[in-house]
TrEMBL record:
Gene symbol of the encoding locus: Piso0_001511
Region (Disordered): 324-344
UniProt KW keywords: Cytoplasm, Endonuclease, Exonuclease, Exosome, Hydrolase, Nuclease, Nucleus, RNA-binding, rRNA processing
Protein name as annotated: Ribosomal RNA-processing protein 44
Protein's organism: Pichia sorbitophila (strain ATCC MYA-4447 / BCRC 22081 / CBS 7064 / NBRC 10061 / NRRL Y-12695)
Domain of life the protein comes from: Eukaryota
Residue ranges constituting the RNB domain according to the UniProt record: 519-853
Biased composition (Acidic residues): 324-341
Location of the protein in the cell: Cytoplasm; Nucleus, Nucleolus
Protein family according to the UniProt entry: Belongs to the RNR ribonuclease family.
């Protein structure tokens, strides 16, 4: 392609970019003008030219010069800047972020654009490095610089053109800074692991180095070698072994197969109790597709987006009734031996008895006499033929001691890392520090998993600390659940009011401000808040009073977070990225800087606060007469804890106005709840416990089951009431982009196993799934007079069969699909917790727009942008829940560590080689394997009755079945392989 540059009268140079767009089988040539400039700076403080000649941008801002005048030096003493190619940016992002290397780094626009197209998360991390500026990263817009922009040559691939563009930038920096222009001579080092790019750069006379060569040239090289990704080192192809897994299908075959319906795409879910069994749900089949065995799983990780191919019907199987755990592997043997892996699965992971049981399952699937019953249990099977999107992230684990070679030489050796997540395979890393890392929690990243390797290859990132230390375990669970916990950046904190802790409504209320004039003064209302004990981030408060006409005025007042968190600021972007606050046992990871949550926005008593209020007039039966929405000013009279409010309401000697207001609220909340239940709202359960921490030592003290009071329900009902009213208002105003929350009805297959259990073990009991009302009524009927806890147990098990609720923009579904199954309401959102949920921040902005308080930002009126927002907050919300549960699990384990106790438990799953028992007192569940209960050779598993018979350790015949109440000794033990503490249950 010819370079057709033309200089305009303005001094800009214009050229053309040509694109080919294909649509409906046709091709269209598109030509766009591309403007070039001669004043794009190099951003170096060493430069004598740019700092004098650079011009302001369109906003009148002078670009900030970041590259240091005294950059870091190589081992030979030479100061240097670094330019990287796309390969390094994509695969060595951990090294780029490391505090030990990579300072004064130039990211060309070419690299940034390529990274954005390949991996948006890594693109975001690069942008974060540029914004942070501690490491002095800059983006150089080479594609708009007249001297560095290049045109693609004839027959040149896009990749080759981009590589040449990066080399052109390296050449330009060399000439620009080292030709009588720089205050000091600076080496420009081009780091690339692309062999062709490296060779061409060398031939052009550039200082090109591979990543390993660059690391070796640094003073602290030895400590950095472990962080070099294995998939971009030159010896990657030299791994011993032979092809073990099928090669993935080509892109053309995948696209064609999905189009003609022979291939299916979905998310892989590995079984909790059998690491060799996975499932993929696809719309074409009522039941999930089963993926059985390591070959069919074909190197896929749990949560990967995979493409699968259906297996012949004669290979369809039932889900396995045998527990198979990778953590039961014995010695790994030679960590470099690729040929022994498959044998491990047959001889080490699975015992002789378990292999016999698996064989019997396979035989029964093809020769059972009860064909009709078997057909009902069969599931279609498939094999993974491609990975569409990897779920790889930071993983936390510990080095397996048996994989560490007894070698004192300082040579990098392969070893295995056993991950905390037991659904994931072990990872092979190469390190010099294996022996000193034993007993430590370490962070690793997966680099690749080739078809000739039994294990994925990864590299070491950093050490968190000793296994079981509170600091290391807490950081580990945050990393495992992808929770952002780093301190807020300077750019985020700069968005806060300058007076910070001293900010008050009085000092920041301008009567001449049109927005302030729109606020309604509600400081005369008897407002109070009711929250958990010691709550400091108070985002909701309530009031109620009787009106002269006999009706009631009820108000829900929510912290006006959006007064401080303005759209399109760094603070808003950070809140959107984090999505939610995360509550752990011993700490809180805030979505917003602490000063907002605990002071400026918190509806603390006795001080004026900005709020967003929903005010209803309701009749005696809690029917809405009218509802108003307004930005307001309130002054809370009291901050109650749940128990404190309950005591005050119940105390008949207390008859002050505030207490009477709370009694009105309690009475109306009961009527609201009664209506919800009649409409079919579900009352489900989870085994929730609370861990009490010692105030002085911060050590876990005791565990108790959470007790809910009437005041808990009071607050919940009015928060639901507000969320429903707000949802209707914003949907009326923004029919395509209103931020809503839905809960889909569970498919009948989700409850199939639970209903089979009820039919087999509890005659006459069954759960009806025609509607949420039918399910709620059937749950109420499933009572066991001999065991009051059975109904709670059933509700816990039913919760696990439900679909997950999700946020969505209203234009993504038809109105009937807005339905919230659990709450039995046609439309719903989250409005009441903007301090800790970003969804609520968006809803506040939409509600402010709906009532005409202020113009709604474009990002919340654009359907595509809203889709991006909800995708992230759904993920963050889910991760926060898992992180919170993991924190409770860890501290419960610490409480039980030295306190073995006898407890009641309930069997919730039954396999042919063990049972799973839930212990309500601690909210934990544990697996009891058959060999720890009795003679495995005598066992008989009745799959239809969910019953396991065996001879126990004392020689007695014993039967265990689902829903049985059992007594167990409970204590906490550390898993020798993963280092993770878990509940060990021993049957009494």
């Amino acid at each position: 392609m010819a370079d057709d540059r033309k200089r305009l009268s303005t001094g800009l140079v214009v050229t053309s970019k040509v694109f080919v767009s294909s649509k409906n089988g046709g091709a269209t040539k598109i030509v766009r003008e591309h403007y070039l400039r001669d004043d794009i700076p190099c951003y170096s403080k060493c430069c004598n030219i740019c700092q004098l000649d650079v011009k302001p941008n369109a906003l009148g801002e002078i670009p900030e010069f970041v590259l240091s005048q005294e950059p870091n030096k190589l081992s030979n003493g030479h100061p240097h800047y670094v330019i990287i190619d796309t390969n390094i940016a994509l695969h060595a992002i951990d090294l780029l972020e490391s505090a030990e290397c990579f300072y004064d780094v130039i990211i060309t626009q070419t690299v940034l654009d390529e990274v954005k197209n390949v991996s948006f998360p890594i693109y975001s991390r690069l942008r974060a490095l540029v914004k942070a500026q501690e490491k002095r990263f800059v983006i150089y817009h080479n594609e708009f610089n007249e001297q560095t922009y290049i045109v693609r040559e004839k027959n040149e691939s896009i990749n080759d053109r981009n590589d040449r563009a990066i080399r052109k930038s390296v050449e330009w920096y060399n000439k620009h800074l080292n030709t009588n222009n720089s205050k000091t001579n600076v080496d420009i080092i081009f780091v690339t692991n692309d062999k062709d790019n490296y060779r061409k750069a060398k031939s052009d006379g550039l200082d090109a180095r591979t990543l390993t060569e660059y690391i070796d040239s640094l003073p602290n090289a030895e400590d950095l070698h472990d962080m070099i990704p294995q998939n971009i080192t030159s010896d990657e192809q030299d791994m011993p072994g032979e092809t073990s897994y099928p090669e993935y299908y080509s892109t053309a075959r995948i696209l064609g197969g999905i189009k003609n319906g022979t291939l299916y795409q979905g998310i892989l879910n590995i079984s909790t109790y059998n690491f060799l069994e996975g499932s993929v749900s696809v719309p074409a089949f009522k039941k999930p597709l089963l993926i059985l065995g390591s070959k069919n799983l074909n190197r896929a990780f749990n949560s990967d987006s995979v493409v699968v191919e259906l297996l012949p019907k004669e290979l369809w199987r039932e889900p396995s009734s045998t527990i198979v755990e990778e953590e039961n592997v014995g010695e790994e043997g030679n960590v470099d031996d690729e040929n022994e892996g498959e044998n491990q699965v047959s001889t080490k992971i699975i015992s002789d008895k378990e292999r016999q049981l698996l064989a019997q399952e396979a035989m029964r699937s093809t020769s059972s006499k009860e064909l009709q019953q078997q057909e009902k249990r069969l599931q279609p099977t498939a094999k993974v033929v491609a990975i569409m999107r990897r779920s790889w992230r930071y993983y936390v684990g510990q080095i397996s001691p048996s994989s560490v070679q007894d070698d004192s030489s300082n040579v990098a050796r392969n070893c295995f890392v056993i991950l905390m997540d037991k659904l994931l395979p072990r990872i092979r890393i190469k390190t010099r520090k294996a022996r000193e890392l034993l007993g430590k929690r370490i962070v690793v990243v997966v680099d690749s998993w080739s078809s000739n390797s039994k294990y994925p290859q990864g590299h070491f990132v950093r050490c968190l600390g000793d296994v079981e230390s509170a600091e290391a375990e807490t950081e580990a669970l945050l990393l495992e659940h992808d929770v952002e916990y780093r301190p807020f950046s300077k750019s985020v904190l700069s968005c806060l009011p300058e007076d910070g802790d001293n900010w008050t409504v009085e000092n920041n209320s301008n009567p001449e401000d049109p927005k302030f004039a729109k606020r309604v003064d509600l400081r005369d209302r008897l407002v109070c808040s009711i929250d958990p004990p010691n709550c400091v981030d108070i985002d909701d408060a309530l009031h109620a009073r009787k009106l002269p006409n006999g009706n009631y005025e009820v108000g829900v007042h929510i912290a006006d977070v959006t007064h401080f968190v303005r759209a399109n600021t760094a603070l808003d972007a950070e809140a959107a990225s984090r999505g939610t606050s995360v509550y752990l046992v011993e700490k809180r990871i805030d979505m917003l800087p602490m000063v907002l949550g605990t002071n400026l926005c918190s509806l603390k008593p006795y001080v004026d606060r900005f709020a967003f209020s929903v005010i209803w007039e309701v009749d005696e039966d809690a029917n809405i007469v009218k509802v108003d929405f307004m930005k307001s000013i309130i002054k809370s009279r009291k901050a109650f804890a749940y128990e404190e409010a309950q005591i005050r309401i119940d105390d008949k000697t207390q008859n002050d106005e505030l207490t009477q207001s709370m009694r009105i609220l309690l009475n109306l909340s009961k009527k609201l709840k009664s209506k919800r239940v009649k409409a079919g709202a579900l009352n489900l359960a989870s085994p929730e416990v609370k861990v009490h921490m010692d105030n002085e030592t911060s050590d876990p003290g005791e565990v108790e089951i959470k007790q809910l009071l009437e005041t808990n329900s009071l607050v919940e009902e009015f928060m639901l009431f507000a969320n429903i009213s707000v949802a209707r208002k914003i949907f009326d105003a923004y029919s395509q982009t209103a931020m809503l929350r839905r809960h889909a009805a569970p498919p009948a297959t989700n409850f199939e196993e639970l209903n089979n259990m009820l039919r087999a073990r509890k005659k006459g009991m069954a759960l009806s799934l025609e509607s949420s009302k039918a399910l709620a009524d059937s749950l109420d009927r499933c009572m066991d007079e001999k065991d009051p806890y059975f109904n709670t147990l059933l509700r816990i098990m039913s919760t696990r069969c439900m679909m997950a609720a999700e946020y969505f923009p209203s234009g993504s579904y038809g109105y009937p699909e807005f339905w919230h199954y659990g709450l039995a309401v046609d439309i719903y959102t989250h409005f009441t917790s903007p301090i800790r949920r970003y969804c609520d921040v968006v809803v506040h902005r939409q509600l402010a727009g709906a009532i005409g308080y202020e113009q709604l930002d474009l990002s919340h009126r654009d359907k595509n942008k809203m889709e991006i927002i909800v995708k992230n907050i759904n993920k963050r919300h889910r991760n926060a829940q898992f992180a919170g549960r993991a924190s409770i699990e860890y501290y419960v384990g610490q409480v039980m560590k030295n306190n073995e106790s006898k407890q009641e438990g309930y069997i919730i799953k039954c396999f042919n080689n063990g049972v799973v028992v839930l212990v309500p007192t601690f909210g934990v569940e544990g697996l009891i394997r058959l060999e720890h209960m009795g003679d495995a050779s005598t066992s008989i598993f009745d799959e239809d009755k969910f019953e396991l018979s065996f001879t126990d350790l004392k020689g007695n015949n014993r039967k265990l079945a689902v829903f049985d109440k059992v007594h167990v000794h409970v204590r906490s033990v550390k898993d020798d392989t993963s280092g993770k503490r878990k509940a060990q249950l021993v049957l009494v």
